[in-house]
Amino acid sequence: MPYLVAARRQALCFLAALAFAVSSDGAEKPDILLIFADDLSWSDLGCYGSERFDTPNLDRLAKQGMRFTQAYAAAPICSASRAALLTGNSTARNGFEFVVKDKVGYQNVTAPLRAPPFTIDLKLKSRTIPEALSEQVYETGFFGKWHLNAHYEGYLGWSPTHGPKKQGFQKAIEDFGSHPYSYWRKGTNARKFLDLPEDTYPDDAMTQHAIDFLKADRDAPFFLMVSHFFVHDPNHTRMRWLYNRYLNSFPKSDPRRETLAHYGAMVTTLDHHVGELLDALEEAGKAESTLVVFTSDNGGHPNYAGNAPLRGSKWNLYEGGIRVPFLVRWPNFVEPGSLNETAVWSPDLFPTFAELAGTNAKSARDGVSLLSQLREGSELPDRSMVWHFPYYHPEKKYSERIDEIGVDDSETSKTKPHSAIRKGNWKLLWFQESDRVALYDLEKDFTESRDLASSQLDVANRLRDELKRYLNSVDARMPTPNPDYQQ
Question: Structural domains in the chain?
Answer without folding.
Answer: 2-383 (3.40.720.10), 388-481 (3.30.1120.10)
